[in-house]
Write a structure and sequence with these properties.
mainly alpha; 1 helix; about 0% strand; rod-shaped
């Protein structure tokens, strides 16, 4: 009878230990995902800013060319 009680207690302890380890692994995976996401925000933000700057420069050049063309045609 004592062996059965010890076996049951050992099984329960093993089950609780396994559940604890699974919970800890899930938290570690969540933390890793959050860290990866936050590490990606910086470079993506810089790339977005660079892209917006390049787009504005391109639009500015197009407007300057249109303006030059219009003033060139107006003087003829």
């Amino acid at each position: 009878m004592a062996n059965e009680t010890n076996d049951l207690a050992g099984a329960i302890n093993g089950l609780i230990d396994t559940i604890g380890k699974l919970g800890q692994q899930q938290i570690e995976m969540l933390n890793s995902g959050i860290k990866t996401a936050s590490d990606m925000v910086g470079p993506l933000g810089k790339t977005s800013t660079d892209l917006a700057g390049n787009l504005i420069n391109t639009v500015n050049q197009v407007l300057q060319n249109v303006s030059s063309t219009i003033s060139g045609n107006a003087s003829k």
